[in-house]
Amino acid sequence: MTYRFGAARFAVLTVTVLALLLSAVPGQALELPDFRGIVKEQSPAVVKIIVEASSRGPSQIDEQEIPEFLRRYFQMPNPPQGPQQERMATGSGFIISDDGFVVTNHHVVEDADLVTVRLSDRREYEAEVVGLDPRSDLALLRIDAEDLPYLVLGADDALEVGEWVLAIGSPFGLDYSVTAGIVSAKGRSLPTRSRENYVPFIQTDVAINPGNSGGPLFNLKGEVVGVNSQIFTTRAGGSIGLSFAIPVNVVRNVVAQLKEDGTVTRGWLGVTIQNVDRNLGESFGLDRPRGALISQIASDGPASEAGLEPGDIIIEFDGESIETSADLPHVVGLIAPGTEVEVLIVRDRKEKTIEVEVGGLDADDSVDQAYRNGDGEGERGGRLGIVVEEAPEEVLSRWDLAGGVVVRSIQPDSPAAEAGLQPGDVITAVGASPVQSLEDFSEIIGGLDEGASVPLRLIRRGSPLFIGLRLED
């Protein structure tokens, strides 16, 4: 038997079935959030930031970033040419106290000659830059006004993945635009414009575009849970549903310090770290890949004074679990210098707790040169499938090494090739055994068991690195 339905009857039937399904599942479709109250109550405290600058320094919305069709639609002139031309840019921000303190992004006001804050009622004030923090991409401004509307910062750890959030800002200069979405993830490690990753970003699918930077991200209580900072865009500069906000715990910490001192001091450990992959985890005796592997320690730094060593894997810091190396800067950076904390590490396949007094973050020089070529007779590390030679004195001096061997060549399909060794790598340790000469290296490699998994400590292009290597059975 064949049933025939007309288009209209089929549409009515579809709607009826959907209505029945939704009514049978309590809470679905009937409890979608209503953002009108939040927008009405909170938008008066959201501001537009207008920046005038005479250089090409970074700023939030250069008119070059605006898609051509939008530029034509709003009759925006082409941006002036030349490195010293006066330019204007816009961003967003929000008031955090009734006496005129305003939060925005560092990159919005960086290199500004004049910063103007425009309120929702179109009052404008010239802003004083109280303090800047490029590491978190936050800035604190102040305007000369009183009895202003202001926003409340939410609880530090209350936000959950899947929760509804709302953004208010000025994308492409369009004042007080409202967009909404959900929290897609937390703790994203992304470099800021200063190339550092001290911020565990909130990822959302809220539509954020150039000009939204510095604006608030709200929860459904109308509390600020983040400051919109970064986006992944199309080539035209538009949103693709990947936006990132600075979490409120970072905002609260940075703003308090900027208000008090005009600068920000972060916790500092004095280590270079790397992630632990499956091979490294196995070679260090971990049950699964986790933690932050210390590949180098700054002399006279907090880690060195506490007795931490290269090869230690930090799996917990001040009670916070460290699942990846990116987690460690997020935790350490929020700890006040001078605080004593417990650090749980894995050393020699055993867990150990060490007390560390956290230091203050200072500038740290890094070596950026690589050892390329050299002379000398090489020796073949047969079990690994490499040819090595003793590191020249020039290399040892340049990188402050006590000794090591340089990888000259690697055999295809060898354990070394599979582990990712490269010509020019300087091997300074195999497992817990330091390598200071060819003799040391040969003796250590010769004593390894078949099928053994062992970490190698390297210097690659001036940077320390651990690689997990498995010998053939």
Automatic annotation (TrEMBL):
Q: List, for all copies, the residue spans of the domain called PDZ.
A: 253-349, 379-442
Q: Which GO terms describe its biological process?
A: proteolysis
Q: Which reaction does it catalyse?
A: Acts on substrates that are at least partially unfolded. The cleavage site P1 residue is normally between a pair of hydrophobic residues, such as Val-|-Val
Q: Which residues form a coiled coil?
A: none
Name the SMART domains for this protein: PDZ
In the Enzyme Commission scheme, what number(s) does this protein have? 3.4.21.107
Q: Where in the cell is it found?
A: Periplasm
> In its UniProt entry, what is this protein called?
Probable periplasmic serine endoprotease DegP-like
Its source organism is Congregibacter litoralis KT71
